[in-house]
Amino acid sequence: MTGRLAGKKALILGVNRDNLGLALAERFVAEGASVAIAGRNPDNTQAIGKELGVPAFVCDLADVSSIDRMVEGAADALGGIDIGINSTGWGLLKPFLETTAEDVALMSVLQFNGPYRFFQDLVRVMPDGGSLIQISSVTATIMMDNHAAYMGTKAGMEHVMRTIANEFGPQGIRANSLAPGGIADAPMSGGGMNSAAMRALYQREIPLGRPGVKKDVVDAAVWLAGDEAAFVTGQVIHVSGGQTLRRNPSIGEIYGAFGA
Fold first, then answer.
1. Cα–Cα nearest to 221, from 56, 87, 37
2. What pTM value is reported for the model?
3. For residues 158 and 238, is the Cβ–Cβ distance under 8 A?
4. Sign of torsion, CA 210 213 218 219?
5. Could you list the residue range(s) of the whole structural domain that residue 142 is in?
6. How many domains, the chain?
7. Edge-to-edge strand order for the sheet containing 236-239?
8. What's the pLDDT tens digit per position in 118-147?
């Protein structure tokens, strides 16, 4: 690797086996950053930390004190934080009128309240600036059936990142969102693209002609976290092969692909 993040100190939230968070952590380490990771699963989080040789923290986004301890612990372990990434996400596939108050409350805690607190804590430990990145989704921009709670909370956090960029730009803090489309080699809401029929369904909606892979998002994150993007803030960068120019497949098409 090129050492593009040498000297940077990064906290990556949402690391687990085979997911985007792990791909981010592995690449940031390879690019020379000092990295701390955080995840919800205690055993997996600690094991991954040992494998990567980085500090690891267990974090429950439903528990404010857990978020506070995680950010404080990472800042202490790394000697500060220059980069903070939230790569967490929970899918909820449910029709609008069948979505309960409890469903909405849970999605709000996991995808809005918790990330909101995470970035608040990061701003407080970045007196000299840094880069904050929210992993969003193309569904914050284009429709996907039966995903109102997911889409709404993701879209809300995109606006929060703009607010952070505006308010704390004078402090040297940059805040942006990365919005992937379907990722063929990472878990996704609705079961993923583990069949040829599902991949074909998404591929026809992507002008560049293929589903995304984790590396596409990680490459964008490395750029956004580093000095090459020093004048980029308050943006939503779609890493989707142009999918936002078209659409997501309908729920009927998705169910049909599962049955193919």
1. 87
2. 0.94
3. no
4. negative
5. 9-189+212-242
6. 1
7. 56-58, 34-39, 9-13, 83-86, 130-135, 173-180, 236-239
8. 999 999 999 999 999 999 999 999 999 999
